[in-house]
Description:
Elements: E1 2-5, H1 13-28, H2 33-41, E2 45-47, H3 52-60, H4 121-133, E3 137-143, E4 147-150, H5 163-170, E5 182-185, H6 196-202, E6 207-213, H7 216-221, H8 243-264, E7 281-283, E8 288-289, E9 296-303, E10 307-315, E11 321-324, E12 326-327, E13 342-349, E14 357-365, E15 371-373, E16 377-381, E17 389-393, H9 404-413, E18 418-422, H10 423-426, E19 440-444, H11 452-463, E20 467-471, E21 479-481, E22 484-486, H12 488-493, E23 507-509, E24 518-520, H13 548-557, H14 567-571
Parallel strand pairs: 1-2, 1-3, 3-6, 4-5, 8-16, 17-18, 17-19, 19-20
Antiparallel strand pairs: 4-6, 7-9, 9-13, 10-11, 10-14, 12-13, 14-15, 14-16, 21-22, 23-24
Helix pairs in contact: 1-8
The protein binds zinc ion.
Amino acid sequence: MLYMSNQHAREWITPEMTRRLMHYYLDNYGKDDRVTRIVDRTELWFVLSANPDGYDYTHQSPDNRQWRKNLRDNNGDGKITAGDGVDLNRNFAYKWGYDNEGSSADLADETYRGPAPGSEPETKALDAFEKRVGFTYGINYHSAAELLLYGVGWQVATPTPDDVLYKSLAGTPEHSAIPGYHPQVSSELYTTNGEADGHAANVNGMMMFTPEMSTCQTASGVDPNDAWQPRDCASVFTFPDDEKLIAQEFTKNIPFALSVAETAEHPDRPASSVGLTAPDFTPDTFTTSYARGGDQDVAVTVRKSVRDKKLNYRVDGGRTRTASLKAWKGGETYGGEDNVLFDQYRAAVKDADPGQQVKVWFTGRTKSGKRTVSEPFTYTVAKRPRADTLVLAEEGGSSPARHTAAYTRALADNGRKAAVWDVATQGAPSALGVLSHFKTVLWYTGAERPGGPTLLAVRDFLNEGGKLITTGERAGGSSEVGPADTDDFSQYYLGADSRLTLKSPTAFQGTGALAGTGANLGDAPATPWTPRVPTRSPPMCCRRRTSPSSAARARGSTRARAPRTSPMRATGWRPRATVTTPGCGCPVRST
Length: 591
Ligand SMILES: [Zn+2]
């Protein structure tokens, strides 16, 4: 079990958290049964500062108090100035530099990822330390946002098999394992790449959480009659230097910290402080299959230690048939990772015809040999035309789609027969149950923004090799995906980096990879325009890092991905982060 803190220099409450936790174990050993038991059975390691140079620097002068990165002298001038330092929570090799949103190639940026994966001595030390000790669990304390983060950081809204375990320990938004901290997948609000947790899990096989401890404002607001007022906070990171408030913050973190250490003894059986368990099976359920007599793949997340993992199914109440479950290797972009203790498995249901009902459940044996069974789910094989193209209608609202015929006719004119799925009446389609049965999906969204649940199903379809045509006044813009307002799908899966307005366009002509394509356009009065930032503009203080050269450098050094041309991207400024510094209004990175 590893407790670590202070990857970011200014997050002073975090080394104090691990220091007090170490004391708590030492002081209560031999007195408190639970603490004694943990210490007797589990090796506990404490890294109080993962960024000692940076931490020291924040103490040298009040001017340095808000320093985040390490002290790498980026320009080699022998002095530490504003453009120096590497963000140690962006420097790890796993997904290093995946894009310029989750980290920056700009030396002066607060999330500068460093010149190479694992370039920094602090990163090398932690990586070697994780390999040497072979941790099963870790907690990586940060501040300040009152969150309890786990899972994928590099792409928004990407659930993974180990989330089953993470969730059982982190709790739910209504009942969080750390009171006041919202438990969520790491990338729910903004993405991070090259960060410690992803590397810990996918390179060194250890499960790691990132609690974002309380802001100065929250702590200062706890007692209106004490000396600490939110308006006096210099930033979210300057937690009040007040024994009572620090003790309160520490105390509410103890149950979670202990529960993770207890779990380390039996890693895939969580000792949850909020009474949650991690089920052996979490089936990916759906109610309608478009298999039309072909095989229907089904998926389930299973505790890896369960043996003889099997799919069981009955067609229209007939005899039970079984098939062995095989671990899913993942798709073109994601999947097959973050599977330290749980994994996704798949098998195919055969010989079910249109109109028939299929009941599906999963079985296996636990480590101790006990038979274990999942909850069942049932789907109906829909009657639908033979077709290799699906028209996915999402016109918004709950009235049946009115324009599907225009699309099926256009496809028919080009020799393609299409089936139809209407989101308004059928809900978001299942990627496996519906979309996977087609080579191509034509997704139209009319005048509305593409919906988040449909977008995620389409992303799964593309991840496994599907082809997409998408159209709509607001296609290629941003969508609400869970709590995030994000255009990541448009950027990374459609290659649509920005949108612009054209008055009465009459035709289009492709260039580059689309050379030779083109068409005349109808009588649209103008192309609609979705502003990149619908509700807020970045205040001037956020623009200070903009420079054409740094933007060009950022693009040049990234992997082969959709180009980033927006000046807002180049600054690293993100409209979706929620934490702001008083007096500035700029979102502040805390993870
Ligand atoms: Zn941090």
